[in-house]
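Apologies for my clumsy wording, but are you able to produce some protein sequence, whichever is easiest, and the tokens describing how it folds?
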Amino acid sequence: MIFCFSGTGNSRYIARRFAEALKDTVVDLNAKIKAQDNSLIQTGKDVIIVVPTYAWRIPRVVSEWLTKTELASAECIWFVMDCGSEIGNAAKYNRHLAEQMKLRYMGTAQVVMPENYIAMFGVPEAEEAVKIVEKANPDIEAAIARIKVGQEFSAPRNNMYDHIMSELVNPIFYQLIVKADSFYASEICIGCEQCALKCPLNNVQLQNGKPVWGKKCTHCMACICYCPTKAIEYGKKSRGKPRYCFEKLELK
């Protein structure tokens, strides 16, 4: 069974590719987390986690959900992490998570996909994003091939920089950066409620027809990137930047 969490569609695309190749089912973790649903799931022997990289580890909301949810019949677990550039030493923490879940750790695979973290980085235009996805496809296929034969993923890069980013920067990043305080909707907001519907933590609520952000946020960028009128901004950092969501790409 494939479990997928996705902010703007990259992980969803990868999970769909896995499901088609392995003839397997995808469980939408956004919906599970949004509904606070930790009920038992019959998975079968193999479990695949497909997630984006948040500050050089898997999203905390995902690891928290996994530790609270019983995956019946599960024995082996693979992690597939997409990122804008690198996953750091995320594999170390994925191994610990697998041990906590009492599952055999089968490795962590990195897949470089288009950047979506508009709150801090530049986001590629559609044409460039398509090229990045096309370049990622062989890595996706290689990961699928290993899972098909029950083979562990090759160990990802693991140097001092990776250790620093995942071990030291990650907790500081969550403490200082991962907040919703800078989100706001401009006057072109039409009150369509897409931001509230897309938020996996129910952190966006409409008040007088306009979105208001609460104190829970995982910086998935779904609210800002799926806004149909580009009314949502993240302080001054998002101004003038293209919005990115995978579904708008015109892939061959």
